[in-house]
Amino acid sequence: NGVGSRCEARTVDWRCASSERTLAGPFDVILACDVFYSLDGRFATADEMGSLRDMLTRALAPSGLLLAALPIESEYRPYATRLEAEACLRSLEGSGSGELLAVEGVQELRGPQAAGEGPEGLVDSRAVLVASLRRGAS
Question: Cα separations (Å) of 25 from 21, 51, 72?
């Protein structure tokens, strides 16, 4: 698709202090998918989200964009509800590392899971909340 030379993927465990070095930026855009969970499969707590928010804010360039994907409907994640996802976003929004991280927009995407995606196989319907948050926005 032509973007391989302009982007890179990194695996980061935000619960691990050494991940800060892995995520060292600054990045103009960070895409965060399936990162907002505790080990029990629930969305992370407000304290955990604060740690993640601080790490992401430090990694973003000034005016950098965070695109966050949060599942809100999955038979394999019964805790992944719109209400929980919105609480997760509220925990991300705010001051982190001395900089403001603000939600600019939220969109719900819905459709069938693509063949070969995910360990659980095909499901008829899946919904994801996609949010854009900007560093330094007011």
Answer: 9, 17, 29
- Element spanning 75, H or E: none
Q: Which two tokens stand for residue 90?
A: 């509220």
pTM: 0.76
According to DSSP, residue 57 is labeled H
CB 32 within 8 A of CB 67: yes
The token pair at 35 is 């990162």
pLDDT band at 72 (very low <50, low <70, confident <90, very high): confident
Please count the CA atoms within 13 angstroms of the CA of 45 that sit on its side-chain side. Answer: 5
Q: In this predicted model, what pLDDT tens digit does every residue of 73-117 receive, in sequence order? A: 766 666 778 888 888 888 788 765 556 788 899 898 887 766 666
16: left (phi over 0), alpha (psi -120 to 50) or beta: beta
What does the block give as tokens for 105? 């927009």
Cis preceding-peptide flag for 62 (omega within 30 of 0)? no
